[in-house]
Amino acid sequence: MYVLLAKPLIGEEEIKFVGDVLRSGMLAQGKVVEQFERAFSEYIGVTHAVAVSNGTVALDVALKALGIGEGDEVITTPFTFISTANSVLYQGAKPVFADIDDRTFNINPEDILNKITHRTKAILGVHLFGHPFDVKVIQEICEDYNLLLIEDCAQAHGAEYEGKKVGSFGIGCFSFYPTKNMTTGEGGMITTHNSEIARLCELLRNHGETEKYYHAILGYNYRMTNIQAAIGLVQLKKLDEFNEKRIANAEYLNRHLKVEGLITPYKKKNVKHVYHQYVIKIEEEFPMSRDGLMRYLQNKGIGCAIHYPVPIFKQPLYRKLGYRDENVNCPVASDVTNKVLSLPVHPALTKDELKYIVETINDLEVST
User: Fold this and answer.
1) Could you tell me the CA-to-CA distances from 365 to 216, 225, 260, 285, 360 in Å, in that order?
2) Region 156-175: what's the mean pLDDT?
């Protein structure tokens, strides 16, 4: 048996709709993109959604629209995919890293307070692995210090904080990469209640064009295609079902994984966790090292991966920019990167595959 770590679920409905778009000859951004934007904004519960070419672009455009620029500081997490912090660099601004919570792996509001300076312009939080960050607390920090809030929702489509969808609190940025909870192949979306921000995002994604061949500002070619949007419209209809399967798979693993030293994912009571990744933590009591477990599972045909093996401030790029452990001071993030391992949780998993994952891991307890 081989169990995939991730698997996009593309069905006949997506294939048919893409075929309809191809036959129409209207392949670039057009009415299908507009339909997708309307449907996504309604789903998230915001007044505006702006489709773009990928999730990194969503972050870049959102920060540009918010006026983040040279000399500004944006507080974010060091434990995420590098595009989160790089989007700050794109503006000529400085990412400032706050440490993470050792249970949710999300940015720690207490350390955010330690990192605020007179240059701080915004907080860029990540709803990591599908678990929302502490939205209410961070919103209060933003209000107290007059800061902007950006939500990186790339891993949290359909996740909720106190009954509201993530991406509806600040400026939301989504990715539709193939391994996400829903996909358009590539693609991204910016969500907001602010009409002026939405309009500026629309201009930025399309060469600053106000009407055909009239360009008001410096813009870019960051458009989504009708082909991508066709996939997205169908995937959005399936998203809640996909998420419920992810949640059910995660709960099965939570109930049945029984090896000492293996910590299953933590979930706060006031959130809906949609398990983009099912991330366990391996402590010293576990029968083998984290890397040893990874090799063991791969040899048994179980896909697994480390998300993420290196905190962003330890990446070569950031070392060149002068980031060091002592001036960043994020010990929890540094510790967690040595302990986490992602197991399969995607909605295509079968009962037999879930059982095989559990039995393969629990066998380690019996053999010790």
Assistant:
1) 65, 50, 7, 11, 10
2) 98
